[in-house]
């Protein structure tokens, strides 16, 4: 299970994050630190590569850029200064269309699209803490991928809130409201006839 670091009276921020060992992966959500262990499963990584390849090919030569974890995304809220940001996450995949949000440290500000691939150790965080964080930060589309059920649930921002989720399975095709002419055939994403193991 993912570990949580918490101390009474302490809110972790990006300035703390920068001092932690580089060989360890962490996220900070609302000042609480979460360890990014254990490593993702093979099927998780296979789905990540398939989606990353589709977005990379589609966005080639365009303004928007796609990145995969590990890649730091700082989400400053309420005019927080960069080093005081209490939200630093490493989504599985992000797409950023505003180049000014990108720097050598990663992304500073809200990506246009975030994809999280569910693992047992991250289930609660992806469905609860990150859902509300991405909504509050203004992520236009939040995709949650369920490898075991071979489904993708998409939340789209409407009037600063995520509307009714759109659910897609292997028989479906996804068209994003952000990217023109992008169609994803889900039968090509999910690895069929292989046991789901985390």
Automatic annotation (TrEMBL):
SUPFAM superfamilies assigned to the protein according to its UniProt record, in alphabetical order: Restriction endonuclease-like
Domain Putative restriction endonuclease: residue ranges: 16-185
Entry superkingdom: Bacteria
Alphabetized InterPro entries for the sequence: Nuclease_put_TT1808 (IPR012296), Restrct_endonuc-II-like (IPR011335), Uma2 (IPR008538)
Pfam families: Uma2
Entry protein name: Putative restriction endonuclease domain-containing protein
Organism the protein comes from: Desulfosporosinus meridiei (strain ATCC BAA-275 / DSM 13257 / KCTC 12902 / NCIMB 13706 / S10)
